[in-house]
Amino acid sequence: MKPRRRVAVLVSGRGSNLGALIAAAAVADYPAEIALVLSNVPEAGGLVLARDHGIAAEVIDHRPFGRDRAAHEAAIDARLHEARIGFVCLAGYMRRLTPLLVDRWAGRMINIHPSLLPSFPGLDTHARALAAGVKIHGCTVHEVTAGVDEGPILGQAAIAVRPDDDAHSLAARVLEQEHRLYPAVLRRALEEGGERPQAEPLLSF
Question: Binding positions for (6R)-10-formyltetrahydrofolate (predicted)?
């Protein structure tokens, strides 16, 4: 069996998708080891989750860096290299990245977004989807590029929007699909040797 890739997860909040990745990596044949969790928020719940599972969890707070986003990302990049990380997953990391980090990790950094991109990039996706009257909603794993939620799509999962859905209920059902999709796409990305994985057909549940 091939050595498992050392993966870092960047979080800003509770770490729901981090939990799904940790659970997937607990299976013996999964190709990733969640080796490091970094957050820009000292109070992020994802840090507690990681530590509860014996994973190194650290804070690189963005606030001391002021408006110097590149300096903050240089500190993140240095820690990733120090920890011998080979691949990075963003899981609710609420900072727009600069070319410094994006370029250094091109092809080795992915993100999960709660909509069927290219529809509804950015924030408040569930409320916006309901306001638009869409009948199908879902989530997307994509490669991280300089544009917000603009990277190549690596996988998607879709659900039907119910007549009685509100933003809360829709978010909850999409999140269930995120927890299935993200580990599956990460597995495929790593098993393809770090090359850009081919996007799977739309997954519907």
Answer: 69, 111
Q: What is the pLDDT of residues 157-187, one digit of tens each?
A: 999 999 999 999 999 999 999 999 999 999 9
Domain boundaries, the chain: 5-192
- Which residue reads 């069927």 in tokens? 116
* Domain 5-192 grouped into CATH 3.40.50.170: yes
> Mind telling me the catalytic residues?
113
| Residues placed in the known binding site | 15-17, 69, 111
- Long-range contacts at 75-82 (CB < 8 A, ≥ 24 apart): 76/10, 76/38, 76/101, 77/101, 77/104, 77/105, 79/36, 79/38, 80/8, 80/36, 80/38, 80/105
Give the 3-state secondary structure of the chain: CCCCEEEEEEECCCCHHHHHHHHHHCCCCCCEEEEEEEECCCCCHHHHHHHHCCCEEEECCCHHHCCCHHHHHHHHHHHHHHCCCCEEEECCCCCCCCHHHHHHCCCCEEEEECCCCCCCCCCCHHHHHHHHCCCEEEEEEEECCCCCCCCCEEEEEEEECCCCCCHHHHHHHHHHHHHHHHHHHHHHHHHCCCCCCCCCCCEEC
